Structures are given as structure tokens and as C-alpha cells.
Amino acid sequence: MDLSQYSFSLSSTNEYNDTNALSLALACELAYREESEIRDIASQWQYNKVEFISVNKGQDIDTQCFVMSNQEHIVVSFRGSHSVKDWLANFQAVREPGPLSETLAHEGFQDALFPAIIKLTNTIDAFEHQNKKVWLTGHSLGGALSSLYAAMLCENGYEVFGLYSFASPRPGDERFANELNAQIAGPHYRVVNDGDIVPHVPPEPFFSHAGQRHLLEDEYGDHSDESWFTQRIKALKVFSQKMANTFDVVDNHTLTGDENSYIPKLERNVTGTSS
Which residues form the signal peptide (predicted)? Predict the structure, then answer.
């Protein structure tokens, strides 16, 4: 996918916005690229301040993200795991104290985030966050990291304007979700692709999602206003079907795998075209 063919635009609205979602999904895709490309594309998007952060500690911690800033916005984008199948196979859902008041968070997710926190926060300070809107985003594991880091920023007096996550697993317990929802007054959405199994782990009721869900249907369009019961039944049906085909599972989780991946669907929502 040639990111140089895309523009990047953020609108300061609290409502779900198709252009915001596509732009931030593109930032998530950019987080998977090499540092040189991240800097080049960010500059093309008129974000001239960029900090690249990569932490690799042993087999379990491989965290990559970047921060880009212009005169109005600061965007923090977290990369997910390169191997979805390996990540799911090694998945362990252990809880430990999390950010904000009396919350529990996923131990492994916090372990992945902690080594990057100091450099991340120093960068946000250097980019003069007080005068700008701070946005966080991430795909897959990166979505969980974006939620946890948003909570850590809020706990320490930083204002997070908006958070869009994509294909995120559940990052913490129900209290964590409620506390984070209360802290972010601006747009706070988790975008979920129909047939993506990752947002269904770790299991409820031990873990919960923060943010308002926005579902991308396999058929063109979305149905975010469906009842919780209808959504759950459909998700279980899709889950059982997709588990029979590992490649379908991965494609529905990736940003750019095929026409039913996240970015192609988001792009169709912006342009108003069908697949």
C-alpha cells in the first residue's frame, strides 16, 4: 500500500467521523513501516515534527510507535504485532493494577508499553501539547496500548482530545473502561471489523472495552445502532465461520489484507463507493 497516495486530515468533532477514522487508520498502517518512511509520509501530511520510538526487549516485548505534530495536532500511533497467529497462540490474560483509580489492566500489554513511556511523554512535552489537540490511535495490540497510554496521560494531568483504536483487544477491566470513558471528553471510538476475532479477547467479564464501538460490516456500510444482543449473535456466527479458515481470520484483522480489511472499508465509507 502506497501511503504517499493518501492525504491526512483531522476534524475536531466529537462525533464519529469517517475521514478521521480513515486518517488515523492510515497512521496505524504507517506505524508498521520503517523510520525513514514514517518521517517522509508524516512530512507529506504536513506534520513536520516526528519522533520514532522502538523498544525490543527479548521475545515478548517489541513495541513500536511514532509521534507526529503540526501547529494544531499531536498524533501518537502504536503498531500492532507482526504475527497475529503467534500473538494469539501465546496470549495470556493476567491482570495487574492499571492506570486511573483502582483499575486492573492486562499485564502483558502494560509490560509492552512501560519501556516506551518516558520517551513518549518527553516527546509530547517537547511538541508543546498544551497548545494542541492530542490524538491517540493504534491497531491490534497497538489499540490496547493506545488506550492504556491515554489513561496514563490523563492520570498525570494531560488532556487527551481523541482516541480511535482499530481491532483492539480488551485492555483492562470494567472499571478501567469506565474511568477512561469519563476522562476523554472528545471523540473516543473503537473501530471493529466484522469477522475480526481479536476484539473478542481477552474474555469478558474479566476484561472490557473502553470507547464507543463502531462496526464495519462485511456488506458495505456499518450498523453501529444495532442492539447489543443482535451484535453479539452476529459476532458469534462470524467467529465460528472464520475460525474454520485461518487466512480469513487474519485478513479481517489486518489493516490492508484484502477488500474486507479495515482501510479498504474505511476508504469506501469516505468515498461512498462499494467493493
Answer: none
Those residues whose C-beta lies under 8 Å from the C-beta of residue 236, and which sit 6 or more positions away, are: none
Coil/strand/helix, residue 30? helix
The CA distance from 77 to 3, in Å, is 15
* Residues 191 and 164 sit within 8 Å (Cβ to Cβ): yes
Mean pLDDT of each 10-residue bin along the chain, 275 residues long: 96 96 98 97 98 79 91 97 59 87 94 93 96 97 96 97 97 97 96 92 92 83 53 54 49 87 95 74
The residue extents of the domains of the chain are 18-271
Alpha-carbon span 206 to 36, nearest angstrom: 40
Kindly report the CATH class assigned to 18-271.
alpha beta
Distance CA 174, CA 207 (A): 6
**Angle in degrees, 0-180, between the axes of helices 18-30 and 35-44, rounded to the nearest 10:** 150
Q: What's the pTM?
A: 0.88
Cell of 109: 500489554
